[in-house]
Amino acid sequence: MAAHPASPVPAQPAWLRPSRPGWPGPAQPAPPGLVLPAPPMVDLWWFDARAEVVRPADAAVMDAGERRRARALLSALDQHRFQVAHVLLRRVLAGYLAAAPGDLRFGRQRCPRCGRRLGRPVLLPGPGPAPFFSLAHSGDLVLIAVAARPVGADLEQDRAGCVCPVAGVLHPADAAALARLAEPDRHRAVIGCWVRAEAVLKCTGEGIGHGLSSLRVGLASGSTGRNRRVRGCSVRGLAAPPGYQAAVALAGPDAVTSRPMAALPGPG
Predict the structure, then answer these.
(1) Measured over all CA atoms, what is the biggest interatomic distance in the chain, rounded to whole angstroms?
(2) Which of 21, 60, 85, 236 is geometrically suited to a Cys-Cys bond with 137, CB 3.0 to 4.6 A?
(3) Class for domain 19-256, per CATH?
């Protein structure tokens, strides 16, 4: 059963898909028309890497650093997933900017805790205001969040083995609440806490190297749970396809809302 949201999901524009005619080349601007959502709305783009074909001309939109990171991956499958995620990130962002995907330049802000340039990825200044974005990919799925404020998204494929040790790196109050759960509820709740905490870190620009133990995100009730205020962000879980969990965080005082811009993938 495909996990579709209750609201209608717009069809993907043909120019987003590398396997379809009309997809722009490295120097071709994406069609204009994507409008950045007003806060606290976040645009969510879901993709299944199994459905994407990345041709050499498509991969050419990536910069030298992205291509180097892709080559460093050991398996062809991981290289494909990385390429899909980063090429589609460029296509999506180009749609908001009416720019050529290959012309987009990325940098990193300084981490607000240590000051090193390991913080939030950002678009470097161009002719117009750049949207905030967050990229997550796990297993075969890719999630891209786009917003007018700093945003963080995380996506995790459920693990087959025991995840109890992961609880030890979470906030002590969350770890204690998780310890009171029985399996399999505890297994799913641990991953849920992880994705919400990592979404907050991505939103604030703090590196995961600083740990998750200071972020109390609480246990979710139901498939998504309620909005929680953590570190100046509003964070909540997202409806995700079976076998995955996801979360989004948005800077500011408002409860984050979201609109799906591409259909949630169903099982292959």
Answers:
(1) 55
(2) 85
(3) alpha beta
